[in-house]
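User: Here's a protein and a ligand (MGD). What would the complex look like?
Assistant: Let me lay out the input and then the predicted complex.
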Amino acid sequence: MSAPDAAGGGDGPSTGTATHCPYCALQCAMTLDPAPGDRVPVRVTGRDFPTNRGGLCKKGWTSAELLAIPDRLTTPLVRGEDGELQETSWETALDTLAARLQELRSEHGPDAVGVFGGGGLTNEKAYQLGKFARIALRTSRIDYNGRFCMSSAAAASTRAFGIDRGLPFPLTDLDTADTVMLLGSNVGDTMPPFVSHLQGARAAGGLLVVDPRRSSTARLTEDGGGLHVQPVPGSDLPLLLGLCHIVLAERLYDSEYVAARTTGLSTLRASVASWWPERVQQATGVPAPTLRALARRLAEGRSTYILTGRGVEQHADGTDTATAAINLALLLGLPGKPGSGYGTLTGQGNGQGGREHGQKADQLPGYRKITDPEARTHVASVWGVDADAIPGPGVPAVQLLQSAGTDAGVKALLVHGSNVVVSAPNAGAARAALARLDLLVVCDFVLSETARLADLVLPVLQWAEEEGTMTNLEGRVLRRRRALTAPEGARSELWIMAELARRLDAPGTWSLDPAEVFDELARASAGGLADYSGLSHVLLDEMSERGDAAFWPFPVGSTGTQRLFDDGFAHPDGRARLVAVRRAAHRRTAAGDELTLITGRLLEHYQSGAQTRRVAELNDARPRVVAQLHPVTAADRGLTDGGLVRVSNTRGTVDAVVGMSPDIRPDTIFLPFHFADAESANLLTSDAVDPISAMPEFKTAIVRIEPIRSPTRSPARGPGQA
Ligand SMILES: Nc1nc2c(c(=O)[nH]1)N[C@H]1C(S)=C(S)[C@@H](COP(=O)(O)OP(=O)(O)OC[C@H]3O[C@@H](n4cnc5c(=O)[nH]c(N)nc54)[C@H](O)[C@@H]3O)O[C@H]1N2
Ligand SMILES: Nc1nc2c(c(=O)[nH]1)N[C@H]1C(S)=C(S)[C@@H](COP(=O)(O)OP(=O)(O)OC[C@H]3O[C@@H](n4cnc5c(=O)[nH]c(N)nc54)[C@H](O)[C@@H]3O)O[C@H]1N2
Ligand code: SF4
Ligand SMILES: [Mo]
């Protein structure tokens, strides 16, 4: 790698490059300085910034390792006749790919080619990918991994508020809160610097955590008299229906606010009438007095926030559950009232921007609907095509993957920024679907497990090697800056799209300059819900020099929007909708000796682990999959701490190390999903989806466990790691 060019960045005293972490949506600010002679090309320092206040988690501190990984891809790889991936030139790779795409298109029609994007892509790449799919490939079949992440919360926010910005307020608003309820969110591990924003609530004894595990976040309730409730996994909907019931029955709700700012109270009231606390206790395992205490604490707070994470959203009833959380917040009069609110914690680095600019099957840039004729006309004019040239809505991620290679599905798939064979639900079936494809193309900078299956692998730039923008969990648009030159051979995805578009005779312009692509994105988003039209790279740089923040919507002539709901909600009448939701009539629960499997994250690993399993310090700390099990459950099945357990169901089998811990319910087992192949938790998860959002059921599966008497592998690490 060549020397860093230490340009840019004003927020710190350092001369280095001011940028943000490659991983999660907190987008902690960091400075990258040249580290000559060191193994890593740049040194990472935390930079003062509202979300992280100079702090970084372990993943952030070690992120420069990624730039120096020994197995970095720098040459296109094509599957040879011997079945192995072998090096090829860019020219050959792109010529062959374009020809093959054209063949498949003329044989089966344009929808035979699909695109799978990612919430880690910059806004520029996400935007360009949506455009590339629609007018270069002319396919409707594009979706992305945000479907696995934010789709339920997004659907719930959209129907309640008319808009979806994960946090409709700056994160620092939480600092002075005295009451914060976190539902299915483990920020202690998933966004460690976030915890500093919970100080006020902790000090006031108002941190309320709902999680079937005593997670590191749940533990934060122990010092200040907060409350942790440990419901049966997947029972959050009845829990929230019950809290709404209590709030209404005990007249704890804000009747003035509800009358002035919402619609739908009478239907909501009827829908929760039968969810009295004793019935909820039965459904959730949470004692009725605790439910009452929770409701009262929420209502008593001077400054109260309700926040949801994936634990409540990644279910087949995730949209309704998030909706029930919003209903509770609305009854309490929180959204849009100073010092209180509702939000969902976006996960991926650009999980927010990634869901605004057209990677989603039903979406055009600016959070526009692809079925809206006006939106189509506007975007078509920016793209330089007729509105008719833009295909209609495609299919959501699970369907896109699982139908691959069938008559109804795509024959080719281009993957940008996701390691789907590890992270998709029912991973065995997903892998089989990918194997049916005529053509799998993966753009990545490492040979991820998905790239290993590809017919063609294209090596791309990473994080500190390119310019761009990210939109963090608050809707704050940030500059990601280049700190060093990419290794010879790796190419920007903007370049790949431009080269393919040219070979496919696509209309439109295909700039290689992220600043230009951003300007086009800004024009395409103008007038949409997520309006970026007043922004540019230059303005963002100037604003960060001054310490100003750019929250969308940011139309031309504005200064952006820190708090979304001060003057009303985004429905035409300005009111939020209370949406009555019901518990699904039937959901199979664990019976007999079955357990409920929940899945989630560890501090040290990120997502499919494609990146963090390559960082020595992180991988040494968590080298393999550990199943968190209650000691009583373990003893009952003859399992010992550090021994091996086989976890299985009709979909698959995972062998894991037993990590005994009293922090989990005895009827529940937890597996992190960061590990691959035979250790992949998703071999066990179901691809049943939420009917509204198409979010898969990652957070509850039914499994059986048994000890493995004669271990095939010896555990690499000792006990207690789950
Ligand atoms: N270290 C690390 N940090 C990350 C990521 C990562 O992979 N690793 N990924 C980023 C991304 S993309 C995301 S989306 C976020 C996710 O951030 P979180 O939502 O905080 O992460 P999870 O661990 O998936 O789930 C949170 C909690 O939900 C609980 N849970 C499971 N089932 C249920 C249930 O039925 N009900 C309730 N109430 N809780 C349940 C789990 O026990 C877990 O503690 O993290 C981001 N940050
Ligand atoms: N069981 C279970 N499964 C889950 C979840 C769960 O809680 N439980 N959570 C779900 C959630 S919330 C999410 S967000 C998904 C995430 O799961 P994935 O979509 O698999 O996410 P990553 O592991 O981040 O994969 C990103 C891949 O893209 C590469 N990459 C990074 N940046 C770029 C880029 O700019 N361009 C390109 N082309 N490639 C890039 C990385 O090297 C990596 O291989 O997993 C979902 N799966
Ligand atoms: S919390 Fe997220 S953004 Fe911050 S350093 Fe850790 S991974 Fe990076
Ligand atoms: Mo996510």
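Summary: The CA atoms of residues 502 and 510 lie 9 Å apart.
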